[in-house]
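Re: the pair you flagged

First of the two:
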Amino acid sequence: MREEEMNKQNEAPQPQQEAAQPEEKEPAAQPQPEEAAEAREADGEKKEEEKRSRFGKKSKDDKQIEALKAKLDDAEKKAAELKDRLLRTAAEYDNFRKRSAREQDAAFGNGLSWAVEQILPILDTLEMAATAPCADENYKKGVEMTLNKAADALAKLKVEEIQAQDQPFDPNLMSAVQQVPAQEGQESGAVVQVYQKGYRLGEKVIRHATVVVAE
């Protein structure tokens, strides 16, 4: 009997095991205040670093632009200095050229004046011979031809006679050796007689005309 009872007990259905309960999901961990602060701080630092990087690049570009501007200004300044120096050199050379030309002209004029001055006494003698009474017409004609050639030569040298007869007395061109009472039709201060002809080269007087002036 006991064995049968035991067998029955074994054969009796076992009570079903309790259905497995679904696993409950643990709620997501909420960030702690300290962690949230650290995250915000890290994010702020990252943004600040990006900002510094962006502005740093811009600042670098600005420095390069400023450097280029400084080089350009320096180049323009040097170019202006070179231009000013060139203009000064050109002006100095032009002044030197003009001064040299004036000095050469003056030297040539002085030499020519001296040479003509040495010849003038010969011309004076020929003038007296041409106006002196002479029975030999060929001789007189020869003297006049010589004077004409001398006048042509002086004209080519741009040496001209000072016109004094009947002209107002000019102390810059004439030298008065005598004053005489003015005759009828003569103006006071006019040259009434030329003792010796005067000559000049341009504005330079080689020899003053020697004259008689009416009072």
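Second of the two:
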Amino acid sequence: MIIRMLKHRLRRIAALIALLIIAIALAWPRPLVDHVPLGEQQIVQTDQPLVCVHTLLENEVQEAKIKRSLQLTRELGASTIVQFFPWAYAEPAPGKYDWFHADRIVRHARRQGLRIIARLGLVPAWARPSQPDSPTTLNFLPEQSFDDFARYAGAFAERYRDAIDVIIIWNEPNLSFEWGYRPVDPAAYTRLLRASYQQIKAANPDAQVLAGALAPTLEGAGSAAGLNELDFLTGMYQAGAAAYFDALAIHTYGFRDPPAAEPAPERLNFRRAELLRETMIAQGDGDKPAFITESGWNDHPRWAAAVRPSQRSAYTIQAFKFVAANWTWVEKLCLWAFRYPADLLSYPDYFTLISADFTMKPIYYALQDYARGWERNENPWLPPPRES
């Protein structure tokens, strides 16, 4: 409960920051040309194509920092990023699109040789009810605006059809906070998924539509906080979701367990993803792959769900090896999160691979060694071993 409250509080702060950024962005004069050169076309050097990171560049104001973040992602050996493209940023008024910020993220990611998995969400003010005595959050999407969101998803798929071929519809709809502080509803989410799927496929038939991005939680039916992802996914299938997604997006965190710890419905750990896979198979949907779009461990010194820094590095590499050896149905394993634009000065900072000032953490180097296949005496970050 405490962890969930902290998470919700930090997300509310992030939403307020996002609103401020939107206001500044709309008022700020746009440059006629890019001030930051793209540089030469790059290719990701990696031995582990599973490695992927979740970037948070939607709230990064300085283009140079966008470029630097993506350079360091490439140098890590991650071939793929998950990146949020908020609807509220792109369509500030009905039918009037502003792709400026999204365009420069996409340009720099492509120049660094990175594949993008796009996550769509966040509702503009015009698409949600707003009354002084009953304000709504940026995650509140009324059913009458489902088609508006779907049109945005289609416009996004059309604009970036040559750059982005994997699109996630919404984020963690099984949590009340992510559903606008309303009771979660797998049938309603399925209706949103269906409308979005149809628009995306019309714009780009080759795009993969990802459903879910479900949060790991133990909440039962009737909880004000949400619904556990196993029951929510079952509810989606009962509502006919199977026809409207090409792969499932999964969030699976390790918390204090090592990656090999056995899964169970009453337990939150890394292998909980297997329970979602079992649900897919039981529903006759086992031919579809999954993308793990959020995962990882936290090494905050005082957070109850954290591990030691050395454990975090070890568990992360063990998780990648476990997935490579056992989960043939997983396309990508994406860590949350590569970097925040600003330090939050709380436990979420200890999920990152590099700090806001671009200081690389030990886990960055550990993952880089794994992703790029470097042995100690071949690692350019370290001196060669001494001769005996």
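The domain at 2-23+49-376 is CATH 3.20.20.80 (TIM Barrel).

-B.
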